[in-house]
Task: structure prediction
Amino acid sequence: MAILFTRLRPGLAALTAVLVLAFAPPARADLHIDITRGQVEPIPIAVTPLLGSGAAEAQMGQNIARVVSADLERSGLFRPIEPGAFIQNPAALQGLPRFADWRLLHTQGLVTGAVSREADGRLRVEFRLWDVVVEQQLTGLAFFASTDTWRRVAHKIADAIYKRITGEEGYFDTRIVYIAETGPATARVKRLAIMDQDGERHKFLTDGRTLVLTPRFSSSDQEITYLSYYGGKPRVYLFNIETGQHDVLGDFPGMTFAPRFSPDGNTVIMSLSTGSASNIYTLDLRSRRQAQLTTGPSIDTSPSYSPDGRRVVFESDRGGTQQLYVMNADGSGIQRISFGPGRFGGPVWSPRGDLIAYTRLLNGQFAIGVIRPDGTGERVLVESHHAEGPTWAPNGRVLMYFKETSSADGRGRVARLYSINLGGGNERRVPTPVDGSDPAWSPLIP
Amino acid sequence: MYVKLLSLFAAVVLVAACETAPKETSAASGIGRAGLNSGGTVTGTGSVRPGSQEDLASLGGQGTGDRVFFQYDRSDLTPEGRATLDRQAAWLKQYGQVTVTIEGHTDERGTREYNIGLGNRRATAVRNYLSALGVDGNRVAIISYGKERPSVLGDDDHSWAQNRRGVTVVN
Result:
């Protein structure tokens, strides 16, 4: 039995240990999804309730199975089997499953597990993923966690299953920061809000008295940079999730907006307006040194770093209309990359580095698309009356964005968050308690 | 447990921070100042206080003397816009104690961040024009709201045209 012992940073995560459970040597199996293909047939999978050592643990085991199943279903890559059809109960599944019985349900994957209580009060949550066709365990892990982190345990299990089946990192143990919207369109109240990627554990971070826009996560998942109109002065701010502290970023002689972190989290890149121009600047968060990257009378904005931190994509109207440009991180070597019809804005570099997502306007219609950093391979994923603001899941395989439509009475606007797979399929509404816009996906939580 | 206590502590700090967030005026929130005909005080039936927002708005037909309109994705002033600003400049000279903030706005047909830059361009164009007419730059602040504060709602050219505006707001 291989044992992996990982101590995570206290305060960030209460999952203090991960144990790899090997039932048999990991085997080559045919249970695999190639997610680089456009549309894939979802893999049938049975996520059984985790066996509890007592009543409370049994309830926890059911809850965890439900969250795992929902995560996998929402990915569009899995089709969970209806639990009512399950043949073996959790207790009977603690040994080797009766694979022939599960094959009758036409499932390919089977998830089993158990929840028990450690002497120190922590939960021990273990799960195993089985390939029902070749009758082998594909992966198995045990987590030790405080009771209140059970949702994160469930998301980590879903991530492990996703990774074992697709070969790609998962994205379920992540959060979304976004702008929660209420009130009439002409006097919209906007608040910073944060939630898990499945919409759970929702929390408002500001009270709505100040207009706030465009939040973005740092690479540590602990800080957010955003635009606030506090005091009637639109400026880029830094918000520390752990301490609740808001700080204005830098000492700039005018409006700053469109902030994003560098991949190492040490720099924030943003636009500064001077006169009628908006140019791109950086602020080193440690030395507080400010640097100007672009010059000229144009509107240069929405800068986004490549994952290696060496290049920046941004939009500019220097050529007449909004188009995408790539430059080196010091501002040199500016090259235009978008040449298709329409206006291109809001570029965001994929965490994988291979693609840049953008918002396009053409003939009064919005679209979300992707393009390679060299300007080839432009491809639209979503066309809509109003769709805007893509953000990448940390594995670079899923995008989230928002759509606006007229409200049913025609007198207001409805803003909703959606996700879509990079292949273009599986568009899903992301639930929010009120209207939502400007989503930003966190990195995988450490 | 140590880890659990820490995360609980963080949550408490967050709530406390929300409750003690600094107070701000309505001007700071941007709500109520960017709308049509906001500000100003009516002192009696049909009477408008000189030097007020309403007074400024009444310089033009339909109470739009406080604003100029722009073409799609443009920030250059139209002949009508220049005429409006000529009247505003004379008014500002008449009420020398008044300071104003120029709000730059766009319609919703654009990405959020570009529109913030475009609103800044429009507000700057208004300020530069007033300044050229001799209005002291220290009396004129600017702010861009991008597409955040439409004055009217609608998916048609007429609505969009009303939202692409620079509004002179009496502080």
Observations:
- The CA atoms of residues 255 and 273 of chain A lie 5 Å apart.
- The longest helix of chain A spans residues 55-74.
- The helical segments of chain A are 55-74, 99-104, 150-166.
- The longest strand of chain A covers residues 136-145.
